Amino acid sequence: MMSLYIGLGVLLLLAAILVLLSLRSRQISQNDIQLHRRAQRDFYRQRQRELRSDLDSGLIDQAQFAELERDLDRQLVTESATEASSTVTRSKRVYVLLVLVLIPLIAVLIYERLGYRQDLALRELQAEIVRDGIDDARWQRYQGLVEDILEQRPDSGEHLVMMAMLYRQQGDFAGALPYYQRLEVLFPQDPDILAQLAQARYLVGNRKVDAQTRSLLERALTINPNQGTALGVLGIDAFAGGRYLEVLAHWQKLLIQLPAGSPEVGVISGGIAEAKRRAVAAGNLRGLEVSVALAPELGAAPSGVLFVVAKSSDGNPMPVAALRVPLLTTQEWPISLLFTDADVIRQGMGLNDFSELSLSAHISRAGTAIRRNGDWVGKPIQIELNTVNEPLSLSITEVQGN
């Protein structure tokens, strides 16, 4: 920031020097003009006397005298007009120089008035935090600078987000709430703002989804059906209310978006598994227990996604159902899963609509359901659904393409 002020100071100094030089030049020019005017008047009077003397002595007649006098008058008028034009030009030059001084002065005033000085200080503080880390003093300075900026520019979305995130990172959702509310007014169609406002309301309101919070979440999902925060909050609320099919609908969409190996994968996967078990126990889902093991000779599993796929024997190439499980960094084997109607891909159908299924499992290195060379695969098993009374076992035994 100091370099900015130095630069402005230099500009103002240069402009002031130019104005002073112009004023000095103007003073000199005024003296020259006065001398020139005096000389003009003396010449005009002398020339008039000479013409009058020539007329009296008979060197010129009255008509010639009148013509020469008119020429003398025209010469005086022409020289006076040229002199006035030169004066106007010099005056305009002074005005231009004054404008050059006023522009940086006005810029400085606007800069101060709109709080852009604090923006520079904020950027310097952010660089300091990145370099030296954060402490209470820096947090307070950061908060104070952003609040000062918002006093000058209350509709600055960037700084409203900063304040909301500042309180959010401190776990103070009550403090973040008014900033999210202001952001909603500015950006009513931003699904992330709507979802984060709803989440703040949910946490401040003793983890209850009231009508307004639900409306915000539904608006967010209408704009972006995969908005992760909204899916997460609705899933939590559904779980608390025992609506386990809703939990699966929301969290299975959320799980697909999470990066493999992230801590959130384990939490959401565990929640989905528990919701399935409770839904099956309540008679709301048909479920098949599946255990997926890894052959010891393959060693540690690679990072990727585990797919368990069920296909039918009706000739339709589209799978009946699929489970997608992002693997944890420290994944334990075997993995116990529950295949349910919620995993059925074919629209309007459930597991009871099929008498026989082929189950297979593979680990996709690229995270796709289609097998590729380098993926870890196992042989499929055939099952008759009506005869399944115990957990099913699948094994991953080889690397495709080796």
UniProtKB/TrEMBL annotation:
The chain crosses the membrane at residues 94-111. Residues 288-396 form the Cytochrome c-type biogenesis protein H Ig-like domain. This is C-type cytochrome biogenesis protein CcmI. InterPro entries: C-type_cytochrome_biogenesis (IPR051263), Cyt_c_biogenesis_CcmI (IPR017560), Ig_CycH (IPR056412), TPR-like_helical_dom_sf (IPR011990), TPR_rpt (IPR019734). It comes from the Bacteria. PANTHER family: CYTOCHROME C-TYPE BIOGENESIS PROTEIN CCMH, CYTOCHROME C-TYPE BIOGENESIS PROTEIN CYCH. The keyword Cell membrane does not apply. GO terms for biological process: cytochrome complex assembly. Its main location: other. Pfam families: Ig_CycH (PF23892), TPR_14 (PF13428). SUPFAM superfamilies: TPR-like. One of its GO terms (cellular component) is plasma membrane. It is found in: Cell envelope. PROSITE patterns: TPR. Keywords: Cytochrome c-type biogenesis, Membrane, TPR repeat, Transmembrane, Transmembrane helix. NCBIfam families: cytochro_ccmI. TPR repeats lie at residues 157-190.
